[in-house]
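Hi C.,

You asked whether I'd gotten around to modeling the 180-residue construct. I have! Everything is below, sequence then structure, no commentary in between.
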Amino acid sequence: NYNNGESHSPLTTAIVIDTLHAEMNQSYLDGRFKLKDLKDPVIDAHLNSFIDFSDVIHESESIILTGSADLDLKLKGRVSELKKMHYSGYLGAANLHNVKLRLKDKGYTIDLFKGSVVVTNHILSIPDISGAFNEAAFHCKVIIQNPLLHLVNPNENLTGKLELNIAELDLTKLKPPSQS
């Protein structure tokens, strides 16, 4: 829906997508988007989805990806104000469920048994990811400050904290098996 308002000017223009919906097998994406005032835009957007990776990336000779993720993201505010506040109008969460990535030609397998990502204003937090790399179990926690600012301005420093706990790390498993 496009409406240029009563005064037919960029200030009163609105672009609205009330309902966005797509699905493929078990996977779906729902959302809405509204943009008002093209001079100093105001955004109000929401995206909610569930993705079964096998619906999106089919097994090939070199890769297998299974498992799923759900996602809920929101962005709301005047773009000029969001820039001043380091894009702090976004909120969201993503959860990973039994993700398995196997790179057949490299001999690597990554299992993510559970994981979540939470985005609240200036902080991207991964409170816990549990998984295994070629059967070596790991737990990971991450906090990144102002992640979106870094993405839109590569000169911006990215700061945060990473904790990675691995009970046993066999570095020989990083080398793919030799081809016979």
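If it helps when you're writing up: Residues 79-84 form the longest helix (6 residues).

Thanks,
B.
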